[in-house]
Amino acid sequence: MLKHVYCHPVEMMLAAGSFCMGGMLERHPRLRVAFLEGNCGWVPFLMWRMDEHWERQATSTHPN
Fold first, then answer.
1. Residue 44 half-sphere exposure, CB side, CA atoms within 13 Å?
2. 3-40: b (≥16 Cβ within 10 Å) or e
3. pTM reported for the whole predicted model
4. CA pair distance 58, 25, nearest whole angstrom
5. Residue of 17, 24, 35, 44 with fewest CB within 10 Å of its CB?
6. How many angstroms separate the Cα of 59 from the Cα of each of 3, 20, 22?
7. 3-class SS string, 10-29
8. How far is CA 44 from the centre of its chain?
9. What share of the chain is helix, strand, coil (3-state, %, to 5)?
């Protein structure tokens, strides 16, 4: 049962992270993506988390 609880949202979080931070959307700006069947309660957390890490990484590699 636990596998079923986690499999859809966690796999979708990994896929969304790969699309957003892996460069796929930059290489294909007209690409449309839909993540279905995994609920969406994880989206705000994932967006916040990726943004936080992006800002931290940008300042550590390119200090102002």
1. 1
2. eeeeeebeebbeebeeebeeeeeeeeeeeeeebeebee
3. 0.66
4. 19
5. 44
6. 37, 19, 19
7. HHHHHHHHHHHHCCHHHHCC
8. 10
9. 65, 0, 35
Q: Using the structure block, give the residue that is written with the tokens 């690409």.
A: 31
Residue 19 contacts residue 46 (beta carbons within 8 Å) = no
Contact between residue 17 and residue 50 where contact means Cβ atoms under 8 Å apart: yes
| pLDDT for 61 | 63
pLDDT digits (tens, 9 = 90+) for 15-47: 988 988 888 989 999 999 888 877 888 888 989
Q: Tell me how many domains the chain contains.
A: 1
Q: Print the domain residue range for 47.
A: 2-61
CA torsion, ordered 48, 49, 53, 59, to nearest 10 deg: 30
